[in-house]
Amino acid sequence: MFKNITKMKTPHTYAIIFGVVIFAWILTFLIPAGRFSTHDITYKDNNGTEKTRTVLQQDSFRYYYHYNMGAVQKDLTSIANNPDKLDEMGIDKSDLDDLLKTNSAEWTDEDLSDAGITDAALYKEFGMGIYNQSAPLHKTARLWGTEDTGGFGVLNYVFEGLVTGDRTGTAVGIVALILVVGGSFGIIMRTGAVDAGIYAFINTSKGLERAALPLLFFVFSLGGATFGMAEECIPFAMVMVPFVIALGYDSIVAVTVTFVASQVGNAVSWMSPFSVAIAQGIAGIPVLSGASFRLPMWFIVTALSAAYMMIYAEKIRKHPESSVVYESDKFFRDRMNETTEEEKEFKLGHKLILLEMLAVLVWIVWGVTQEGYYIPEIASQFFVMGFVAGVTAIIFKLNGMTINEMAASFQSGVKDLAGTAVVVGMAKGILLVLGGSDATEPSALNTILHYIGESVHGIPAFFGAEIMYVFQSCFNLAVTSNSGQAALTMPIMAPLSDVLGIHRQIAVLAYQMGAGFVDAFTPVSAALIGVLGVAHIDWATWAKFQIKMQGFFFLMGTIILFIACMIGLQ
């Protein structure tokens, strides 16, 4: 049965999103549109600077109704000569007087808007009496839309999603950031510095296995935290499996120190452009914010996970026959008697590139936390990282690097992440189908949020965050793409956090832990199955070990969310 499970194919992320788009469109026919009022809250960022943010008013939801223009006219007439009230509502007296001279039976929503009269102001002052409450209205997208036929349509969702926003936010800015980052890492990986550094670490750690394995766990965790390392673990597993077995451990330890470590780093990353940055961009909070909390979280979780691994590893080292993969590991034990490990030279150029990468990563963290760097600056910093690495490789003649190879590597890196970039646009397309993300504009999404919010209304903030965490963990069992999961869930989870009274940063935290930790377990993960294949471990055997570790991960995640809620993470 389990073998059949491992052969299951998850639908392509694009196919899933398109299905969600169609489902969302159908929902708009079934669910009436609704809206919220908003208000500004004041908070302090990581630097202690006072800032404001517009959030939902939890008790302001109402369905989308036609106005009762007679009642509206009566109410507006009652305040026409009250300057203080007009100023409070943001209404110009001359515009109001002009409107009141016309027949209210002929008024439209546009007439009210032209006079500077907003729905939020009317509702706040006069309540539900301004509406004709006979039947709530629906707001549905066309199947096809153009500028001259009313605008957005369902089949326009990809393009419209991609061009929404500006250079500092979703979706245009995030798409540009992802493409630049992809190109930069394309150059870096082409230099061979990352490969050479890890191989050198492995070759110099023999005899120091008790220290080597935790340190390697940190190295791969750092890879997951910085650039979403996953499939890249497969070639390293080919080296690590025989190396770890030679030290007296088993292939499960090798998979844990490579792939699992990378997913731990991904789950508690402070800067991954493929998970945290995308989720924060969709959530509408500063990209790569919250690093002051996430950095120590990454270190502590990585250390505890490495300790968990070492407890198991030491048990196997003392009693090798107790390993559930002892028989399958015989393949590697026999082969090691016949072959020697190939050395890979760690050149000066490789060392300089790795030092440059570290320096730029420190620069990024400093810029975000101290100078308020945002998407344009971060993208430029990643470009500098890739460009300097490429020039260094040319100077030191690494891997035959030339200017043309450098350009081609950048192009290849962009190509590798183009699909991820499109996902961001598609995420925005889902929002457009549901009526948009503006809480003050009537949409089916606002009504859905209201329904969900009502179902968990009044629960403590921590339990709300925990529900999000459980949901994201379960969701990852089917959709292993971190960017795809962000695209499908954050448009709902981010505003839901407003309804529940918790900061969107915590919603992002619940997403990234749910998406990251479960990646080390789910049988539909191509990267996991690839690594297990290299190690000659079937998924059912892996699950026997990993299910206990997943419980450990979930406990850590729950504690982290509790702490985040207690300190009011922003």
Write the layout of secondary structure elements.
Layout: H1 2-6, H2 13-30, E1 34-35, E2 38-44, E3 50-56, E4 62-63, E5 66-67, H3 69-79, H4 83-89, H5 93-100, H6 109-114, H7 119-126, E6 131-132, H8 157-162, H9 172-191, H10 193-204, H11 209-227, H12 233-246, H13 251-267, H14 276-283, H15 291-318, H16 330-336, H17 348-370, H18 375-395, H19 403-433, H20 444-455, H21 461-476, H22 482-500, H23 504-517, H24 526-534, H25 539-567
Antiparallel strand pairs: 1-4, 2-3, 5-6
Helix pairs in contact: 2-19, 9-18, 9-19, 10-12, 10-17, 11-13, 11-15, 12-13, 12-24, 13-15, 13-23, 14-22, 14-23, 15-25, 17-18, 19-22, 20-22, 21-22, 21-23, 21-25, 22-23, 23-25
Rg, Å, rounded: 27 Å
- What's the structural domain tally? 3
Number of strands: 6
Strand adjacency order, main sheet: 1-4
Q: What about the largest sheet?
A: 2 strands, antiparallel
Short description:
The protein has 570 residues and is mainly α.
